[in-house]
Design goal:
alpha/beta; eight-stranded mixed sheet; Rossmann fold; 20 helices; GMP Synthetase, Chain A, domain 3; 30 strands; binds adenosine-5'-monophosphate-propyl ester; 3 domains
Length: 653
């Protein structure tokens, strides 16, 4: 259960710069002024159900819904009785008018190859893939694992599942075979869609090999569909593995979209929590689509002629909501880039923006900090005048990075939307509306209409201006997760028991004198590395699974580039002494168990871990030791104070 043991949420950040929306931007925006924003919020507060019902009517429903919300705390059903299909909303409904021949996906491969798929072409590909899945025996409600590079076929596979009511579970291509196997097994996926490999910084990521390794322990998988992307040699197991090229193109492009219940699960996506293995966050169809569609308008101010680029990989929620479902439901032209920002050189992103005239650019603070380090010259080589709006997501953006983003990338002309949300929330919750809300560097500003965000004490009382507290959401919203796959208890315990009657986000926040929200990061045992959540538990379990390790505790340490870095404190079996070799071995072991993004930056060997009398590891102390903090606070519950002294000695040694 995520704890609310938040002692480090006193905020010291004082930022007084404020940037009103540029007048010409506001004049053209969907929401043009603070007054207009306030009026929408007022309407949403007065009658949330009527408000969300009106939003949902922006989608195509096969059968209209009756009751808007059934709220049985903490279980929500939105748009009861309605039937809908996500792929139909992302594709078919655009085919009757001028969008039919509009570019839906503009894709650039890392080696420099590129493809453009119009809405009609994408719809045809999705139809073929859906028929191929049917031919493999995939049915409504079956789970399909997708482990692919960032290629159009990844989106096609997702939409094909949605078309026939199969539930996709996309696993980030950077995860190891172990992590893939865990996710496949939890979902009991029947089919896995992958590629021979993917390109990353000129190297091949051996996706199919990883799948083969994973499937040694995944009895539920019957078929593997393999896209040829890089042409590396892979083994194809007879009767199980099929080439995409041989199966999909031969299918009919016509495949009727299933009329699914509004609450039919659209996907599961695994995310880290404080305890145990990653949890399969379940999103359903009608509410989720409503949320992502509305935010395309409110937050990205999407217009018909925008070229919209979200740099997130499809393996994360940002890729689901803001590369696939949100923008396609809104009829946008979406740019997708397969590879690394520094291939072949550090200016690849800027080159892509100039080449395709990207107008909306959405990326993560960790990337922005990296670009700052690489230097302005890489940016200056390119004409970025097509940009009109910039976005940020995944972790708090420090004001200096925000200012650089605004000046160097945005030419001081583009508003920045700092968007706060989570895998669980489905879509953006707190963000400026760029034509309406003045921005402050480092603040996600205000909650969107219909989102009842609040900052509270542990007792659930709203805190006063400029006091730190816990970020919660008081009312259900359409995009919220519905459960944790096959674990409703965990759903309740993770989010709904900490603060009475509300959803607890796990984040700390502060509301300033203007009501602006400043997110202060996680208050539980989750580390945010480069905008990706890692549960300390997972890394600890990975470490303990190594024969030499007796006990492990991981904490985050502030890191200039990545936001947070992972520091692991490790005790060894049988009094064994740690050395540099074992340190490297343990780091590699974590990479094998989870993936490179979980690799500890630092492994510290210690004789014992500091624990409370009840045996709980005192992470607060470890966090302070890891970040070299002198003031260690209250240690009265420490089981053995000498442990602490020892840890600090080890530090100096
Ligand atoms: O701590 C918050 C941080 O990322 C967490 C959610 O991580 P995940 O589910 O992986 O989703 C990331 C993409 C939506 C949050 O609990 N976070 C996300 N966006 C922001 C943020 N922290 C501060 N500012 C943000 N804009």
């Amino acid at each position: 259960m995520p704890s609310t043991e938040a002692t480090h949420i006193d905020s010291t950040l004082t930022e007084s710069r404020k940037f009103p929306p540029p007048a010409d931007f506001s004049a053209r925006a969907w929401v043009k002024s603070l007054d207009e924003y306030n009026a929408i919020c007022k309407r949403a507060d007065a009658d949330p159900e009527a408000f969300w019902a009106e939003c949902a009517r922006g989608l195509y429903w096969f059968k209209p819904f009756g009751k808007t919300l059934e709220w049985n705390f903490p279980h929500a059903k939105w748009f009861v009785g309605g039937t809908i299909n996500a792929a139909y909303n992302c594709l078919d409904r655009h085919l009757d008018g001028p969008r039919r021949n509009k570019a839906a996906l503009i894709w650039e491969g890392e080696p420099g190859d590129s493809r453009v798929l119009t809405y009609q072409m994408l719809a045809d590909e999705v139809g073929r893939c859906a028929n191929a899945l049917k031919s493999l025996g995939v049915k409504d409600g079956d789970r399909v694992a997708i482990y692919m590079p960032l290629v159009p076929e990844a989106a096609i596979a997702m939409l094909a599942c949605a078309r026939i009511g199969a539930i996709h579970s996309v696993v980030f291509g950077g995860f190891s075979s172990e992590a893939l196997a865990d996710r496949i097994n939890d979902a009991e996926a029947k089919v896995c869609i992958t590629a021979d490999g993917g390109w990353r910084r000129g190297q091949i990521v051996e996706l199919k090999n990883n799948v083969d390794e994973a499937l040694k322990k995944c009895p539920s998988i019957r078929k593997v569909l393999v896209l040829k992307r890089v042409g590396n040699k892979v083994e194809m197991r007879k009767g199980r593995d099929l080439w995409w090229d041989e199966l999909v193109p031969a299918q009919s492009p016509r495949c009727e979209a299933a009329a699914l219940d509004a609450e039919h699960p659209l996907y599961t996506l695994y995310t880290s929590g404080t305890t145990g293995k990653p949890k399969g966050v379940v999103h359903t169809t009608g509410g989720y689509l409503t949320h992502v569609l509305m935010t395309m308008k409110w937050v990205f101010d999407l217009k018909e002629d925008d070229i919209y680029w979200c740099t997130a990989d499809i393996g994360w929620v940002t890729g689901h909501s803001y590369t696939v479902y949100g923008p396609l439901a809104a009829g946008a032209t979406v740019l997708m880039y397969e590879g690394a920002p520094n291939f072949p050189e550090n200016d690849r992103f800027w080159q892509i923006i100039a080449k395709y005239h990207v107008s909306i650019f959405y990326t993560a603070p960790t990337a922005i900090r990296t670009f700052i380090k690489w230097g302005d010259a890489w940016v200056k080589k390119h004409d970025l005048s097509s940009l009109r709006l910039l976005g940020s997501v995944g972790e708090p953006i420090n004001p200096e990075a925000w200012m650089w983003y605004r000046k160097v990338i945005g030419g001081e002309r583009c508003p920045i939307v700092d968007t706060w949300w989570q895998t669980e929330t489905g879509g953006i919750m707190i963000s400026p509306m760029p034509g309406a809300i003045a921005t402050k560097p480092g603040s996600a500003t205000l909650a969107l209409p219909g989102i009842a965000a609040d900052v509270v004490t542990r007792e659930g009382k709203s805190v006063g201006a400029n006091q730190g507290g816990l970020l919660i959401v008081r009312k259900p919203w359409p995009g919220m997760l519905r459960t944790i796959y096959r674990d409703p208890e965990r759903y309740k315990n993770n989010y709904f028991v900490q603060i009475d009657g509300a959803y607890f986000t796990g984040d700390g926040a502060r509301r300033d004198q203007d009501g602006y929200l400043w997110i202060m990061g996680r208050v539980d045992d989750v580390i945010n590395v480069s905008g990706h959540r890692l549960g300390t538990m997972e890394i600890e379990s990975a470490l303990v699974s190594h024969a030499a390790v007796a006990e492990a505790a991981c904490v985050g340490r502030p890191d200039e580039m990545k936001g947070q870095a992972v520091v692991a404190f490790v005790t060894l079996e049988g009094g064994r002494k740690g050395d540099g070799r074992l340190r490297d071995e343990l780091r590699a072991h974590v990479v094998k168990e989870i993936g490179a993004l979980a690799r500890p930056d630092d492994v510290r060997f210690t004789e014992a871990l500091p624990k409370t009398r009840s045996g709980k590891i005192m992470r607060r102390l470890l966090r302070q030791i890891a970040s070299g903090d002198e003031t260690l606070g209250d240690t009265t519950t420490l089981e053995d104070l000498s442990v602490l002294a020892k840890l600090r000695d080890d530090e100096q040694g």
